Amino acid sequence: MKILQAQSYTTTTNPFSIPTHSFITPKLSIPVRHVGPTFSSTLQQFSITCRRPYPFQPKQSPPPPSPSSSVGELPAKIYVGHSIYKAKAVLTVSPRPPQFTTLNSGSGAFKISKEGCVMLEFAPAAGAYQYDWNRKQVFSLSVDEIGNLISLRPRESCEFFHDLFIGKSDEGKVRKFLKVKPLLDRSGHMFNISVENKLENINENILIPVTKAEFAVFNSLFDFIMPSLLGWNVFANTINPEVNNTNQGIEEDFEWNKFNRIM
């Protein structure tokens, strides 16, 4: 006896439903033999279709966040920092972003109104590797002051002075000094912050040694964050290729090609 086999098998895929399967039988003549007379029967073609009755919605993951097209669309703030803990004090460095303001030209452009900075936070020890955060003192490093620290050599020292009310009526009432001096054994630098606050009757002095390795980590972080403190990273994200057909653009291309030939 001959066994029926499917003549064709097709699969169609719809993005909103599961695959549809169709089976089409062959048109065959099946002889049937027995002791009596021999006869044959013809089996007509038919098809079977399996289909899910309800549409299938594929699960879609949320799209990734797109880069900001303007300063006003920047993502939520993210706070980062790096700390070194010693027996008598803790020192934490953390960046602060620049501030932007819109131009009055109506073009939707922005400019920096205040450069970013790096905050140095000092807290004295209140016990064995326990720190009194209520006595924390903060010193803000500008971009130029960060450059002084980055260029500091192992045997060199530097000193910074801040008056929070300089040019105002309370000038001289809150003064901060930051001194960075090499250790006697040349294993690193000593960071020393002194705060004289006559308004709150505070006179604080905190020292913490920073090894060469720790100071190298600080410098690496300073190097990395420097362009962002100046807003250069935001500017770089707004650069788009432009076609300039003016004479100025032709002259700039000529100078650029001449520079490449020299190089």
Radius of gyration: 38 Å
Backbone shape: globular
Mean pLDDT: 77
Number of helices: 4
Q: Could you give the distance between the termini?
A: 86 Å
Helix content: 10-25%
User: What structural class is derived from the secondary structure elements?
Assistant: alpha+beta
Give a count of the beta strands, DSSP E runs of length 2 or more: 16
Q: Give a quick account of the main beta sheet: strands, pairing sense, barrel closure.
A: 5 strands, antiparallel
Poorly predicted regions = 2-9, 11-18, 61-72
Proportion of beta-strand residues: 35-45%
Write up what this structure looks like.
With 263 residues, the protein is an alpha+beta fold. It is 18% helix and 39% strand. The chain contains four helices and 16 strands. It has helices at 143-150, 212-229, 232-237, 247-262, and strands at 8-14, 17-24, 28-32, 39-43, 47-50, 82-85, 89-96, 99-102, 110-114, 117-127, 130-131, 137-141, 158-163, 174-182, 188-197, 202-211.
Descriptive keywords:
4-stranded antiparallel β-sheet; 16 strands; single chain; 5-stranded antiparallel β-sheet; disordered N terminus; globular; 18% helix; alpha+beta
Write the layout of secondary structure elements.
Layout: E1 8-14, E2 17-24, E3 28-32, E4 39-43, E5 47-50, E6 82-85, E7 89-96, E8 99-102, E9 110-114, E10 117-127, E11 130-131, E12 137-141, H1 143-150, E13 158-163, E14 174-182, E15 188-197, E16 202-211, H2 212-229, H3 232-237, H4 247-262
Antiparallel strand pairs: 1-2, 2-5, 3-4, 6-7, 7-10, 8-9, 10-11, 10-12, 13-14, 14-15, 15-16
Helix pairs in contact: 1-2
